[in-house]
Every structure is written in C-alpha cells, then in structure tokens.
Amino acid sequence: MTTSPEPTGAVTTGSATTGPLLTGQEAAATGTLVASDLDRTLIYSSAALALEVPDEQAPRLLCVEVYEHRPLSFMTERAAEMLRELAEAAVFVPATTRTREQYRRIHLPGPVPPYAICANGGHILVDGKTDHDWRALVQQRLADDCAPLAEIRAHLAAEADPAWLLKDRVAEDLFAYLVVERRLMPDAWLAGLTAWADDRGWTVSLQGRKVYVVPKPLTKSAALEEVVRRTGTTRILSAGDSFLDGDLLRAADLAWRPGHGELAETGWSSEGVIALETVGAAAGEEIVRRMLAAVTG
Fold first, then answer.
1. Closest CA to 3 of 121, 67, 73, 98
2. Are 87 and 113 in contact (CB under 8 A)?
3. Which strands, in side-by-side order, build the sheet including 115-118?
4. pTM for this structure?
5. Fewer CB within 10 Å, N or C, the chain?
6. At what angle do helices 149-159 and 187-198 cross, to 10 degrees?
7. Please, which residues have CB within 8 angstroms of residue 56's CB and are 6 or more apart in sequence?
8. CB under 8 Å to 3, separation ≥6 — which residues?
9. Same domain, 92 and 210
10. Do 94 and 197 lie in a common domain?
11. 166 close to 209: Cβ distance less than 8 angstroms
C-alpha cells in the first residue's frame, strides 16, 4: 500500500530514550494514561455496529471518519461525549494498527491527542506529527530480530489463493495484510501461515476480512512504554479486541475487551482484563463509560 508523504511540519522530537516529557495538564491531574485501540473497540463501521435493539430505540450516532466522501466509522453520541470528558481527565492515547494516513482520517471528539500510536507501534505521533527517532529505533529492532518484509510478501503472493484473496497491502513498510473473502479462506491455510510466520519472528492476526502478518517486536505495548516514560504517568488503562491488542491489555493496570473480536471468540483472558458481554457500538460506549469512571472515581 502506498501511503501519502509525511505532511509538512513533521518533526524529530529527540531520542527515544531522552525525548521530552509531557508537561501537560492532563498528566499532572490524575497521573493516568488511557490507551485504546480504535476499530471495533471505540469506533465502528456500519457493518460492525451490531445495533440489536428495535430501530426506534437505536442510539444516535456520530460519524468520526469519512473515506472517499462517504461516512465510514461511528461512535454513539453518548460515547463521544464521555470520550471528550475522558481526554480532559487523563492522557488519552489512541493505539491503532492503522497507518498514519488512515489514522488521520479519524476525527475523535476533543483536542488532538498529545500522543498517538499508529502502525501497531511502528509510529508514535506527537501532537499529530511523526517522531522519526522512534521510527528509526523500531526499524533497527525489526532488522535485528525478524525475517525481512520482502520474504513475507513473497510467501503471501505465492500461497494466497485468488479465489478468496481480494487485496494484498503493505502498511508503512512495516507489515503486510490481506483482505480476504473470509468464508472461502480455509482455516488450514491460516493455521499454516501462522506456523510459517512464527518460525520467522512474525505473528498472524485475523480481524474481520483482514489477515495481518506483523513482526513480533512491532507491538503497541512497546510504543506505549515509551509514551508512559515521556508523560510520567503512573497508572495505565487500556482496551482492545484483537490478538494484536493482547500485549496492550496486559501492559495496563486495568483493561477491557468487548464481547466481540478475536479475543472474545477465543476466550482469551489475562489478569486485570475485564471481559465485557456487550458487542458492537454498545460495547464501545460501555468501555468509555468504565474508563471514565475509573479515572474520575
């Protein structure tokens, strides 16, 4: 996938071990950092909303993303209101597998987050701008510990069946993903890919119609650790729905996962992680409600 050039104003913020600390009001107020996955955790496509109530009882929705002139992602209005409150009471850090370009399409309620984690930890944005030192550190880690991306791409090109493969993409020159017709893709193929990738230092995650193949050192929790160091926060809350969020949830003092997604489907659990039963946009609203209550007491 070709991503857009880095926008004017992108900066180097200092070394990933000596970068500036956040002196903002949020960090001083509560000492709490809230890191959350976005897609199918806080925001939802129309197909993922899972509105299970009669139409006349459906919640009002706020569109938070437009793509190619069409509304794409939503939150309930109540979730949006609470997220604005949460961002004022704690350091709110979106933590997504999206590329920077994809992330910048999203307009969440409230101010631009002081930090955001994109590309599954491959990029840290500081006030919306790329931290190039962090990116260089990540690249070195991947070069030291994993098979090259080119090898992964070649394997996917040779092994994926055109009968169920819709698209193949590369994200930020960091990892690969396929868009597939899930009902046609054999479970055995996915299992084989998982084993093959594991031997080369990569991991596989199935999220909806997308099969992600990601280097093992490329994690949201590694980027989170750096953001925590910079902000000086002492308490972490988090939320997520997929295997790629597992390390993010384990890194928190308290975390939540919705009743849908890879983690719910496999019964994944970990100490300090609350498994919710609600699904879809209602789960997103419940996650924000619980986070806000945990921050404000």
1. 98
2. yes
3. 115-118, 123-126, 129-130
4. 0.89
5. C
6. 160
7. none
8. 99, 100, 101, 171, 172
9. no
10. no
11. yes
Q: What angle do CA 74, 77, 80 make, to 5 degrees?
A: 80
End residue of a domain, out of 198, 215, 232: 215
- Listed residues 175, 196, 215: the one ending a domain: 215
Residue 275, classed as helix, strand or coil, is strand
Is 134 found in the same domain as 167?
no
CA–CA gap between residue 213 and residue 190 (Å, rounded): 11
Q: What are phi and psi of 60, to 5 degrees?
A: -70, 140
| pLDDT of 169 | 97
223 and 189 together in one domain? no
pLDDT of residue 297: 87
* Sign of the Cα pseudo-torsion (264, 268, 244, 106, in order): positive
Does 190 reside within a domain?
yes
Cβ atoms 125, 60 nearer than 8 A: no
Tell me whether residue 9 is in a domain. Answer: no
Residues 40, 110: one domain?
Answer: yes
φ, ψ of residue 157 to 5 degrees: the values are -65, -35
* Confidence (pLDDT) at 30: 62
Q: Which residue has the tokens 């902000």?
A: 231
Burial class (CB in 10 A: 0-12, 13-18, 19+), 123: buried
pLDDT score of 29 = 55
Residue-level pLDDT at 208? 86
Count of domains forming the chain: 2
* Position 19 in a domain: no
Residue 51, domain extent: 26-139+218-296
Please tell me the chain's helix, strand, coil percentages from 3-state DSSP, rounded to the nearest 5: 35, 25, 35
Q: How far is CA 33 from the centre of its chain?
A: 15
Listed in sequence order, the residues at least 6 apart from 221 whose beta carbon sits closer than 8 Å to its beta carbon are 121, 247, 248, 250, 251
245 and 134 belong to one structural domain: yes
Domain containing residue 168: CATH number: 3.90.1070
3 domain-assigned: no
